[in-house]
Amino acid sequence: MAFKINSSDYMEYLREFYDVLQENKDYITELDLATGDGDHWLNMNTGFGELLKNEDQIKDMNLQDAFKRISMILMSKVGGSSGVLYGGAYMAASKTLEDVEYIGRNELYGILNAMLMDIMKRGKTKVGSKTMVDALAPAVEELKSKIDEGASDEELLESTAAAARKGADDTKDMPAIRGRASYQTDKAVGHLDPGAVTMAYQIEILCNYILRR
Ligand code: ADP
Ligand code: MG
C-alpha cells in the first residue's frame, strides 16, 4: 500500500521528533559546545515546542497552509542559523504542496528536495561543508534513486533514513566550511555537526513514522 500523509499525521511525526529531542538534550548541547556556541538544542527545542503548542490548529489545515504556518513559527521563534534555515526550508517546501491532499513518495521527494535547495542557497552551503546539508542531501539523493527504481515503501523509507544517518556520521571527519565551527582553528574535525545530527533525527523519525502506519 502506498503511503499517504496528511497534516495531522505530519504533526504526529513532529511530536515524535520533539520527544527524541528531549531524550538527547545533553548530547546535542555537547555537540554544539564542541563545534559552535552550545545553543543548537535550545534553538530546536524552542522552535519545535512552539509548533506543538499550535498542533490543534495546524493539524486541521491543508498541507500547504500547515507548512507555511510551520515556517512562520520557526522563523519567528527559533534563534540562530537554524531558525532562518528551517523557516526558509518549510516555506520552500510549502510551495510544492499547492492542492496536494496527501504526501506520498513523490511529494516527499518534492518537499525534501525543496528544503535542500533552499538551505543550500540561503546558507551558501554545499555538500561537505559540515552542516545539516550533509544529512539531508544524501537522503534526498537516495529517495530519488529508490523512487526511480520503483522500490517498495519499506525499502525506500529504510534506505532514505539510513542515508541521512550515514550523512550525519560522515560529518565527523569533515573540516567545517560553513557555520560557527568554521571559525575554529581545527575546523571541528573529530566532532559530529549538531545540525546534521538533528536533521538526521528528523528524516529517520519521519521515515519510521511512515513505515509504522
Ligand atoms: P548558530 O550556529 O547560529 O548558533 P544553531 O546552533 O542553532 O545556530 O545551528 C547550528 C547548525 O546550523 C550547525 O550545526 C549547522 O548544521 C547549521 N548551519 C550553520 N550555518 C549553516 C549554513 N551556512 N548552511 C547550512 N547549515 C548551517
Ligand atoms: Mg549554535
List keywords for this structure.
mainly alpha; binds adenosine-5'-diphosphate; 10 helices; 0% strand; binds magnesium ion; 213 residues
What does this structure look like?
Helices cover 69% and strands 0% of the residues. The longest helix is centred in the last third of the chain and has 19 residues, at 194-212. Helix 5 runs antiparallel to helix 6 (80-94). By secondary structure, it is mainly α. 46% of the residues are buried. It is built from ten helices and no strands. The chain has helices at residues 7-23, 25-35, 40-53, 55-58, 63-77, 80-94, 105-122, 133-149, 153-170, 194-212. Bound molecules: adenosine-5'-diphosphate (ADP) and magnesium ion. Adenosine-5'-diphosphate (ADP) is lined by residues 32, 36-37, 39-40, 43, 80-82, 85, 119, 123-125, 131-133, 178-180, 193-196.
Helix content: 55-70%
Structural class designation: mainly alpha
The proportion of strand residues reads: under 5%
Estimate the global geometry from the Cα principal axes. globular
Each distinct ligand: adenosine-5'-diphosphate, magnesium ion
The average pLDDT is: 97
Give the CA-CA distance, first to last residue.
10 Å
The DSSP helix count reads 10
Quaternary state of this entry equals single chain
Largest sheet: none
Query: How big is the Rg?
Result: 16 Å
**Secondary structure tally: strands:** 0
Unreliable segments of 5+ consecutive residues: none
Secondary-structure element series: HHHHHHHHHH
Secondary structure topology:
Elements: H1 7-23, H2 25-35, H3 40-53, H4 55-58, H5 63-77, H6 80-94, H7 105-122, H8 133-149, H9 153-170, H10 194-212
